[in-house]
Write a structure and sequence with these properties.
61% of the residues lie in helices and 8% in strands. The chain is an alpha/beta fold and 1105 residues long. Helix 21 (615-631) links the parallel strand 7 and strand 8 (635-639). The model is unreliable at 1-32, 415-442, 680-712, 774-782 and 1054-1061 (pLDDT under 50). It is found in: Vacuole membrane.
């Protein structure tokens, strides 16, 4: 194994840092500056993937960075793909009331599917012709004369050997090229899903879709559709290939042996389909539990400060692990049943061959070596469609369940417009028109007009007719015209003040009445300001691309942010961290208000932006910003939960109670009514806040968090290793099982050796049986029955050993998944806030607990078992070929050198591309969690910034997809060249068999060698590819293991010496370590938030008793 090292240089992280930053005008542009080489490649270069050579050679010499990888070809970009899909989706919605995402996806890629199917079919035809050539070659070898009569009419052995080599070369090359197209199709389907998640999450009405579900859709479900795209064709092609194979067997052995073998094959394939359906149902349950776990983990990470404040790490970790326990129970059932189905299809050719031969000899026919080995070659040719059928069925059901989840998501995100009338229900007499609103219709349409409008948070469903959801707002009557004015909304907590603003923004479903919103643009400030992980200026300017410095300066002054900026080394270019973690509550409120004020809008909706400010600051900001800057030129609707001393300055006061407007008019008209009991606290009262702009100490304290930051960049680049995945990564993973890693590895190898030996013995026994066939009639007892019984017994034994080895390995792999998650969850929860959570986006952390963990849970068991089986099959093939024809060892030397050289060059490039792929996935999930949580979607929609954020999301998706697709093509580049090495083995064995016709060891040896050599063309490349893919998958385990080395906080509890504990009088028998008094003492205490920053507290001494 090679070595790895961390790479977090600025050069390698520039693109990802740009994607992580929400500054929409600073997106990388180099992607559109580098044309994809396939655009100018000729047909020969495209067919043999020669255009990909430069990148592989570059990766073998130097570590790859994102700048070394070409941008996506235009047809593969998210915007173009989404446009294609929307055309199919629109057609589906027009033709049926319940459109299917999966059918629309098939319609979108019907031409691509046709190309892949054509290539796979051509390759399959060439594969099926190879046993015919092998039969003629064996007929040539069994003939003593120089000229032989063969089924193909070719009497020259060298011509037959050359024909077999050409067929082998053509079949593998066309198949690999088809996989390139299939992988591209899968990557495109994955991009469409991720783009749809962003598109519909930004559209609103997502109350029924949690951020955890969104992350699962974008990471897990999209990956399942990628896998379906890769294997989908085999769902139809495999049965056809198997049918053709048994028809060809019928021409050689007769109808009944072929029918018997086909019956076994069909039965096992049907069993695989049924098991696949059951496994798909389990997978559906896994996705539900996984979504809940990811959702809770996201909430846990978002509120990590509160968790640490109250010392909740242990109970919340236990809760997550309990959810993880449910997930692991389902994963165990999923993998066990999946393996049973896979093994049934894996041994289907073996059992079919056994039954074919038993029925053939039972008819009294004589088994000859050519017939035995041509049947064995045909059955071995069925291994590929059978194993591929297993994968395709599993992935198809997984994709269908994911598609159903996407259907539900798309249905939930369909909006109910608030700009059209619905028949109003019976309602009480509406509140009288406010005194300051003329009864005469305005000359221009009002910005907002609600008439007997009732709203619900959740969209009513047809299933909820008997139990409709409760109304959030009831019988609302309000008109807001374009006249500059200030409307203040008051009421009890939970009375519906914020819901009223949400209804104006269109975030509530209109249940009855009428609602018209004509405001073209809205300046919105939420009660808990949604801030991005960006600079202060980027948060205020938001998506506005016009440089309006004068207005920006006026807004900063009106919101009293100038003093804060003066204390920052980077000024307004200082990054404020995820959710503005480096700002105080008052600073967050003023930045959120400044963003709304900077917007040149028709209407301003402000949801209690003054609650985090004390009376003095609130009054100043209210007068300078809300009154003077905004309401003098535009209408303003302001929610107030405190600071009632500001009510006399309102032109209009709305009083809310229980979701209804119970008072509407100037304060004077309401003063003599009973409405004032709803806000009966003294008008001069105000909430006390720690943020006081008039207090120098408060100002210093509020800015201490960011004032000490010498750099404007807060988020650190994500760690990324280069080079091979080391053996230590595998050892660490195995040790996570709780057992000795080396001992587990050796025991696994032992059971695989035993199973493979039994499989080889079965194939050898077929040749031995056929060679002994001429002498069976000379003995007094029926040796055919004896031999058939032995062969059937070997088949059953092989089935048991193959199943046993799989279940044995799965046991340890599931233990690894369980302990690995528990370890990293504990380490993350005990990581320091300043040096970890403040500089690490939540999406990056969540990527570990979603995509990376899902990869380890699902791909490691599947790939691990498959790779081990293929490795031992390769060893068996090479040993059999060498044992039957020692001269082939001379060919192994150059082919082995080419193989090792190719693998060394490729593995360096592939692993780096996979790491780039994993790293580029974090910005996608980070942007998704950032925009879907804490009112982000509401703010984006209020500012009509959906298109800007969708463009940013598509840039992040395209960045991730260019690495994902490039990595996949690199695997097929390598597989194609390895297949050519395998073709060299086939040609070598065939030519040696002809050259050593009278000295090779008989037709049995030649037949066995040719049969195993043909297997090698399929197995060698697949094994190496899957091993390399396993290395890539292990980069996810590597990324998880990185969190085992996180810096940890100090102990939550600390034992004190018994001498410091004084027992209470009369309670001397109490526990010796029970404290009798508490105290907090700081003596000359200084601290900084993390290494490299200036001191935030200096020489503080205090004592609290």
């Amino acid at each position: 194994m090679g070595t790895t090292k961390d790479v977090t240089s600025a050069a390698s992280g520039s693109t990802f840092q740009a994607l992580a930053s929400p500054a929409l005008n600073e997106l990388p542009t180099q992607w559109s500056q580098r044309p994809h080489p396939i655009v100018n490649a000729n047909w020969f270069s495209r067919a043999l993937l020669l255009w990909f050579d430069p990148l592989v050679l570059k990766g073998a010499k130097d570590p790859l960075t994102e700048d070394d990888v070409w941008h996506l070809a235009p047809p593969d970009t998210a915007a173009v793909l989404q446009a294609r899909f929307q055309g199919a989706w629109t057609t589906a919605k027009q033709t049926t009331s319940s459109p299917s995402f999966f059918r629309a996806l098939l319609r979108t890629f019907r031409r691509d599917i046709g190309v892949v199917l054509a290539l796979y079919t051509a390759s399959s035809v060439l594969i099926l012709l190879q046993p015919v050539v092998i039969k003629s070659l064996l007929q040539f070898l069994t003939t003593e004369s120089a000229t032989a009569v063969t089924d193909l009419g070719i009497s020259n052995g060298y011509v037959l050997a050359a024909l077999l080599t050409l067929l082998s070369f053509g079949s593998v090359t066309i198949m690999d090229l088809g996989m390139v197209f299939a992988g591209r199709l899968g990557c495109n389907a994955k991009a469409i899903v991720m783009d749809l998640v962003f598109l519909h999450s930004l559209s609103g009405h997502q109350s029924c879709t949690s951020s955890g579900d969104l992350v699962t859709l974008a990471s897990v479900d999209s990956t399942r559709l990628f896998m379906c795209g890769l294997w989908f064709m085999w769902t139809f092609l495999s049965p056809v290939m198997v049918l053709v194979i048994f028809v060809m067997i019928g021409f050689d052995l007769g109808a009944w042996p072929a029918i018997a073998g086909a019956a076994v094959m069909v039965a096992l394939m049907a069993f695989g389909v049924l098991e696949g359906r059951a496994v798909g149902a389990i997978q559906k349950d896994i996705l539900v539990v996984q979504g809940e776990r990811v959702k809770f983990t996201n909430e846990l990470l978002q509120g990590v400060r509160a968790v640490k404040m109250y010392g909740w790490e242990a109970p919340l970790q236990a809760h997550v692990e309990a959810m993880r326990g449910q997930e692991l129970s389902l994963l165990k059932a999923y993998h066990y049943r999946r393996q049973v189905s896979s093994i049934a299809l894996l041994v289907a050719p073996v059992l079919s061959l056994a039954l074919c031969l038993v029925v053939y000899v039972a008819q009294g026919s004589r088994l000859t070596p050519p017939l035995a080995f041509i049947t064995l070659a045909y059955v071995n040719a069925a291994r590929t469609p059978c194993s591929s059928f297993s994968f395709s069925i599993m992935n198809l059901f997984d994709a269908l369940h994911s598609s159903h989840r996407i259907d539900a998501f798309l249905a939930s995100s369909s909006t109910t417009t608030i700009s059209t009338d619905t028949p109003p229900s019976s309602a009480p007499t509406p509140c009288p028109a406010p005194n300051n609103i003329s009864s005469k219709p305005p000359s221009t349409p009002p910005l907002i007009h609600m008439q007997s409008a009732s709203f619900q948070w959740k969209k009513p469903s047809t299933e909820a007719v008997d139990n409709p959801p409760e109304h959030a707002l009831k019988h609302i009557n309000i008109v807001v015209d374009s006249t500059p004015s200030l409307t203040i909304v008051v009421g009890y907590v939970g009375s519906g003040k914020s819901s009223l603003l949400s209804a104006m923004l269109g975030d509530l479903h209109l249940a009855s009445g009428g609602c018209h919103v004509t405001a073209r643009s809205v300046g919105y400030c939420s009660q808990d300001p949604w801030l991005q992980n960006a600079t202060i200026r980027d948060n205020i300017v938001f998506t506005d691309q016009v440089d309006n410095t004068p207005r920006y300066n006026r807004v900063m002054s009106a919101c009293h942010l100038e003093a804060d900026l003066a204390s920052l080394a980077g000024g307004d270019s200082t990054e404020i961290g995820a959710r503005g973690v480096t700002l105080s509550g008052g600073q967050k409120a003023r930045v959120g208000l400044a963003r709304a004020a900077y917007k040149d809008a028709d209407l301003y909706l402000l949801d209690d932006p003054l609650s985090a400010l004390d009376a003095a600051v609130a009054t100043t900001v209210f007068h300078e910003c809300i009154r003077n800057l905004l309401s003098r030129t535009r209408p303003v609707v302001l929610v107030v939960n405190s600071h009632y001393h500001l009510l006399p300055f309102a032109d209009r006061v709305l009083v809310m109670d229980n979701g209804a407007i119970v008072g509407d008019g100037p304060l004077e008209s309401l003063a003599s009514t009973a409405f004032l009991h709803l806000f009966s606290s003294p008008l001069s009262s105000a909430a006390v806040s720690t943020d006081s702009m008039t207090s120098s100490s408060a100002t210093s304290e509020s800015t201490a968090t960011i004032a000490s930051t010498s750099s404007t960049s807060l988020v650190v680049a994500e760690e990324r290793k280069v080079g091979h995945v080391t053996s230590q990564t595998y050892l660490t993973y195995f040790q996570a099982s709780g057992w000795n890693g080396l001992g587990v590895a050796m025991s696994v190898l032992g059971v695989f050796v035993l199973a493979q030996a039994c499989l080889v013995l079965m194939d050898w026994f077929v040749g031995f049986w056929a060679s002994s066939s001429p002498f069976l009639s000379t003995v007094p007892y029926n040796n055919n029955a004896t031999y058939a019984g032995i062969y059937v017994a070997l088949s059953v034994l092989a089935l048991g050993l193959v199943l046993g080895r799989s279940l044995y390995v799965l046991h340890f792999i599931l233990l690894c998944s369980k302990h690995l998650h528990a370890a990293i969850l504990h380490n993350v929860l005990h990581a320091p806030v300043p040096s970890f959570f403040d500089v690490t986006p939540v999406g990056r952390i969540l990527n570990r607990f979603s995509a990376d963990l899902s990869t380890v849970d699902n791909m490691v068991p599947m790939l691990g078992l498959h790779i081990l089986g293929l490795v031992f099959q390769i060893v068996a093939s090479l040993v059999v070929c060498a044992a039957t024809s020692p001269y082939i060892l001379l060919l192994y030397v150059p082919l082995g050198y080419v193989f090792s050289k190719l693998r060394f060059i490729y593995s360096l490039t592939s692993t780096q591309l996979k790491r780039l792929d994993a790293t580029s996935r974090s910005p996608v999930l980070n942007l998704l969690t950032e925009t879907s949580g804490n009112g982000g979607g509401t703010t984006i929609r209020a500012f009509h910034a959906e298109d800007a954020f969708q463009s940013k999301a598509r840039a992040a998706i395209d960045c991730n997809q260019r690495f994902d697709l490039t990595h996949f093509i690199s695997t097929k580049w390598f597989q194609m060249r390895l297949d050519w090495v395998s073709v060299g083995v086939v040609g070598g064995v065939a030519f040696l068999a002809v050259a050593t016709k009278h000295s090779m060891g008989g037709v049995t040896a030649a037949g066995l060698a040719l049969t195993y050599a043909i297997q090698l063309t399929i197995v060698l490349s697949r094994t190496t590819m899957e091993y390399t893919y396993m290395e890539n998958v292990m980069t996810s385990a590597e990324r998880l293991d990185h969190y085992n080395d996180l810096e940890k906080e100090g102990a939550i509890t600390q034992s004190l010496p018994s001498s410091t504990i004084q027992p209470c009088p009369g309670h001397e028998t109490a526990l010796a370590d029970w404290p009798s008094q508490g105290a907090v003492t700081f003596a000359n205490y200084s601290m900084r938030y993390r290494a490299g920053l200036e001191l935030s507290l200096k020489h503080v001494s205090l004592s609290v008793r």
